[in-house]
Specification:
The protein is of the alpha+beta class and 140 residues long. The protein has helices at 7-11, 14-38; strands at residues 42-49, 56-63, 69-78, 84-93, 98-104, 113-121, 130-138.
């Protein structure tokens, strides 16, 4: 039977430990790179759930920065009575925390409801600092 591993490698007991040490270092380095790449980012998840007669807007705004951060959100939509609603609010989110928001609407019976969500970095409604801008159309 042929020898697949040379005899000198069989006697060298340091090689497996060096391989394990190298793999542990590579895993630690990879985890550190993933962590450092996410510092300072903000994560926004937003959507519209259209189940039944009660469509619902939701958004989750997560601050994964290392300090308290202020955001402003603006929600505009037309109601079933034809008037336009405008909700604006500023919020502070602590590091590592998530702000969750939901708004339940009535499904329109005649015309289409236009719903828009804008999220800004900071306290102002400033187009240069916009983080998220999305519009939905809710049909009867």
């Amino acid at each position: 039977m042929a020898h697949l591993i040379p005899e000198r490698l069989k006697r060298n007991t340091k090689l497996p430990y060096l391989i394990i040490l190298f793999l542990l270092f590579a895993i630690a380095y990879s985890l550190e790179r993933q962590t450092s790449s996410s510092v300072g980012e903000k994560t926004i998840e937003a959507g519209l759930i259209e189940a039944g007669n009660k469509p619902a807007l939701y958004f989750n705004l997560r601050n994964i920065a290392e300090s308290l951060h202020r955001y402003t959100y603006v929600i505009k939509y037309n109601t079933t009575e034809g008037e336009t609603k405008n909700e604006t609010s500023s919020i502070n989110i602590s590091p590592g925390q998530t702000f969750r928001y939901s708004l339940i609407l009535e499904r329109p019976t005649k015309s289409t409801t236009v719903l828009s969500l804008r999220i800004f970095d900071g306290e102002e409604d400033n187009s240069e600092k916009i983080l998220h801008d999305q519009t939905w159309f809710i049909r009867p």
